[in-house]
Amino acid sequence: ALMATEYVKVQEGLTALRCVAAMRTQAENVDRVHAVYVVNEDDILVGKLSLKKLLTANRAENISELYTPIQHTVLSTTPAEEVANTMQKYDLFVIPVVNAAGELLGRITLDDVVDFIREEAERDYQLASGLTDEVESDDTVLHITRARIPWLLIGLFGGLIVALMLGENEGDIESVPALALFMPLIAAMAGNVGVQSSAIVVQALANNKADHNMTKKLFKELSVGLVNGLILGAVMLGSGLILGYGQLVTLTVSVSLLAVIIFASLFGTFIPLMLNKFNVDAALATGPFITTANDVIGLLIYFQIGRLIIGY
Predict the structure, then answer these.
(1) Distance between alpha carbon 278 and the CA centroid of its chain, in Å?
(2) SS3 assignment, position 61
């Protein structure tokens, strides 16, 4: 979809004078001449011609002495993401498209790639926001509803699971009412940490910079989660004691915060990597799924740690 078939090409056996004539004829059908490609008699791409060299060359000089070999090409079957990454990596304004035999088929410009990157960014943002389909502000109510409702249903069912958990632990909350005060904190921190971790992985995957060694990546996130958890847990411990919430309650919240942050860091990293492994768009993981799952599991961890420390 990115490739344009309008381009200027010349035979490598032409003289500079005949080359200009050939270019003039072809340029009538091309809006913008980004590059002049040189092909052999079999239409195999062999190089690219500099307009500066052509203009300063002797009219009788052969094109084969003027062009520079092509360093970067893409196949017609190359995924658009890979094309964008190649052009970004090598700072290319235009890249030729060839088939398996090396025959020139077309070219892709930076403008085309920028449009693609913008569309992909919009799509990933919508996926991360819980939209299952591309949505525009002027779409119909039915189309917008259909795009939004699946992940809203997941959020609803996640909320129902949380409600069931609260019902199961109602006696614990009645025994230690102060635990209820910190439930929003635990849920919010779990969701925030999970979204942060997944967003970093998704961005790395999109830029083709992700380390696909899952064990190494998870260990790194474990370390990050441990450091963050210790810092935030210590802050919570000091704040809770100063505010007078009691030693056991404050310790429960602090330890729970540490455990939840570590889990959310690992979970937010693992899910995008697994989705990518099975060729599913990892941007799905940065939305309501990560937030809802971490909310549920975070509160479950909270109540279990409360039982261990307070012993209600």
Answers:
(1) 15
(2) coil
Q: Which amino acid is at 52?
A: K
Q: Is the pTM of this model over 0.85?
A: no
pLDDT category at 264 given cuts 50, 70, 90 is very high
Does 178 lie in the same domain as 64?
Answer: no
Token pair, residue 47, equals: 């190089």
Q: Is the pLDDT at 136 greater than 70, yes or no? A: no
71 with 175, same domain: the answer is no
Asked if residue 128 is part of any domain, the answer here is no
> What Å distances lie between residue 59 and 36, 91, 152, CA to CA?
17, 32, 69
Q: Do 95 and 185 belong to one domain?
A: no
**What whole-number distance in Å separates Cα of residue 50 and Cα of residue 67?**
7
Contacts of 174 (CB under 8 A, 6+ apart): none
Q: Which residues contact 89 (CB under 8 A, 6 or more apart)?
A: none
First-last CA distance in the chain: 63
Domain range for 208 = 150-310
